[in-house]
């Protein structure tokens, strides 16, 4: 089991993540537009979630860890004021690679689930 990573979901994180990934959809930066489309507030985009998952993996497996594959599925949205808790466990080891099952939860439930393949430098192939 990898140690959990807790990330405060702020309005700034949501907007900055959307801008950094060039996702200009109004639901990621305009509260009125998000409400008009049925959401209570702006919400995090999938690319920000992917980045946070990558951060989680490299912080837990070391800075030399190389993300080779990532497959995620989104669930409950992340809104400002939420706390995203990322968890994971190694499900298999093959040579220099690991397979990790991961999940992220917030106050509404599961935000993200998925699997990652990670290469670790220095492991015997």
Beta-strand portion reads 35-45%
Low-confidence stretches: none
Helix- and strand-based class?
Answer: alpha+beta
Q: How many strands appear in the DSSP assignment?
A: 5
Query: What separation lies between the terminal Cα atoms?
Result: 23 Å
Q: Give the radius of gyration.
A: 16 Å
Overall pLDDT confidence: 95
What order do the SSEs take from the amino end to the carboxyl end, as H and E? EHHHEEEE
Helix content: 25-40%
Q: How would you write the strand order of the largest sheet?
A: 1-3-4-5-2
What can be said about the biggest beta sheet? 5 strands, antiparallel
Q: How many helical elements?
A: 3
Q: Shape from CA axes? A: elongated
How would you characterize the overall build of this protein?
- It is built from 3 helices and 5 strands.
- The protein has helices at 11-20, 31-36, 46-61, and strands at 2-8, 66-74, 83-94, 97-106, 109-119.
- It has a 5-stranded antiparallel beta sheet with strand order 1-3-4-5-2, covered by helices on one side.
- A hairpin with a 2-residue loop joins strand 3 (83-94) and strand 4.
- The mean pLDDT is 95.
